[in-house]
Design brief:
2 domains; six-stranded parallel sheet; DNA polymerase, domain 1; 43% helix; Rossmann fold
């Protein structure tokens, strides 16, 4: 069926998760890239672990816990940066192609939304900071169901909010595991593979693979 709506993951897809460290790279020091990668890895790991246990904490809480682990793993990084790094993560930079892509989809009459593991306040701050509010119809947080992707009930939030069938939603994510989750829920997932990473999760493939958000509106779905 033709796609009627485009739903985007937030962190790593519309917003650059490494921008927080990027703003303080010189102060963080030579471990900046590894520190940022670990921060992101533990943030996701905590969300999956809690989901498997049937527990829930806000993504913001997990972001702080993951940051604390990164500080412990890289003791040469000044812990005095904690508040500044969290503030920077709260207001992450959007990728340069995010707004043009959303604006083009809106101009073509498509519904647009964010569906994210991020907490409601995090998403509100990020959308406001990136000035994306006028090109989004919905900003959906897992706070509403108190669990994390890739459980199917999270993707159901988009189906319910948009009032369309699952296969009428193009779900756009840079996270291959998130693409697999969307495919499992019956959505039409698009993988933004900026880094040229190898494919994984056989049987839960994307309907398209692109290198940047500018390509989204040019797809024939």
């Amino acid at each position: 069926m033709p796609v009627k709506a485009y739903v985007f993951d937030a962190y790593g897809t519309l917003f650059d998760v490494h921008a927080a460290i990027g703003r303080h790279r010189a102060t963080v020091g030579p471990d900046a890239e590894r520190f940022s990668e670990l921060w992101r890895t533990k943030q996701l790991e905590y969300s999956w672990t809690l989901t498997l246990m049937g527990r829930y904490e806000s993504f913001w809480t997990l972001t702080g816990q993951a940051l604390d682990f990164a500080f412990a793993r890289f003791p040469k990084v000044d812990r005095g940066l904690r508040a500044s790094l969290l503030d920077a993560y709260y207001k992450l930079d959007a990728y340069p192609d995010a707004r043009p892509a959303l604006a083009k989809l809106k101009a073509e009459g498509c519904a647009t939304a964010i569906l994210s593991n991020g907490s409601t306040d995090m998403l509100t701050a990020a959308v406001k900071g990136a000035k994306l509010h006028d090109v989004l119809d919905h900003v959906l947080s897992v706070d509403a169901v108190r669990t994390f992707k890739p459980l199917p009930k999270v993707y159901d939030l988009a189906i319910d909010a948009l009032g369309v069938k699952a296969n009428e939603i193009a779900f756009v994510s840079s996270n291959r595991w998130d693409v697999a989750g969307a495919a499992n829920a019956g959505l039409a997932p698009i993988w933004v593979n900026r880094g040229g990473n190898p494919d994984e999760y056989p049987g839960l493939e994307p309907v398209a693979v692109i290198r940047g958000l500018a390509e989204v509106a040019n797809l024939s779905l």
